[in-house]
Amino acid sequence: MRMVDIIEKKRNGEELTSEEIRFFVQGYTEGSIPDYQVSSLMMAIYFQDMNDRERADLTMAMVESGDQIDLSGIEGIKVDKHSTGGVGDTTTLSLAAMVAACGVPVAKMSGRGLGHTGGTIDKLESIQGFHVELTTEQFTKQVNDIGTAVVGQSGNLTPADKKLYALRDVTGTVASIPLIASSIMSKKIASGADAIVLDVKTGDGAFMKTYEDAQQLAHAMVQIGNNVGRNTMAIISDMSQPLGFAIGNALEVKEAIDTLNGNGPEDLMELCYTLGSQMVVLGGKAASIEEARQQLQEVIANGKALEVFKRFVEAQGGDTSVVDDPSRLPQAKYKFELPAKSSGYIAKIEADDVGVAAMLLGAGRATKESTIDLSVGLVLHKKVGDEVTEGESILTIHANSENIAEVKEKLYQHIVISEEKVEAPQLIKEVIT
Ligand code: URA
Ligand code: CA
What ipTM was predicted for this assembly? Predict the structure, then answer.
């Protein structure tokens, strides 16, 4: 087989065979096919697209390029959730405990990553003593005993995707639905998921800015999952403003605990119920979305979800007293209010830029080497659509420095108040089952 023939075939809009797809993925991973040929093929795919079979084959070729996590020691259907980024998204922490309390095992492999705030692991590490270094045996046993565990990324998962994503990044070929969908799905499948729930975000703070793109991506990923034997569902949710109230690491852990107590922000609770319902159905513990939602509401009301979270924190070495008293989480030295400059209605809280403001305080990582300040961040008191009067606080800034002029300026620039009444955006835009 010659790579140049594969490139020309795709350039001419023809379908690639399974063998051809495996050939280029393997060859590129091993280094026998050079960057310039693969970047040419990526551009051909960008323009000519791939059909459902090609997308499924590409996904599985990337899965098979490296290690695959074996979760067969865990009883039950392992359902994983993936969200395509967002600002202040604390969902994973509450959701894992809620779903586990309904009897569906949640075996989570997580990373630190770059962004406005830390990843799931960084957030959890704001609980004193919490660690994610578990052996496979400990990880398996903990999920069987308690229902959930979070472990740091290890092993050589989807090396083909790592190489391809880095190449796409510098060749103008990231924004291709078949390439994004197969990239995301390959990582979930290699991590051992039997079934997958996807939260595709749309809006200013999301990877997919337009609704049409989000829709296409969601449908593409559901199709891939179902075609490779992993039941997959998805939702499309709004990320035009941050999720919940808190943006920061310890602040989001507190918000997750509030949610498990049934006192979380309305949008975060709704998102947990919606995604959780899909996970409980896919995990085989409820026959319908409605039944699953009822079960989730029960484990919040009777405290079982909170109890699972507590046991999970304890099993991974964390100080469980923060669950009863979140004020024991790391606290920033200073709190500053951001008073509204005029009266009216909140028209915009631009998620991306508000996230950057949190990052300027030290809540996120700009490069792999930067350190994170777990205590700092923002807590919103208003969301889009809310009424506000001049001088009233829109949000509280939690900082470890008094020098926050730049942060304030950024926030004032990207939080818009209008004189006319504004509709709150709809959070769950579409449910794909
Ligand atoms: N996220 C991924 O993991 N892969 C892509 O290709 C794009 C976003
Ligand atoms: Ca939040």
Answer: 0.91
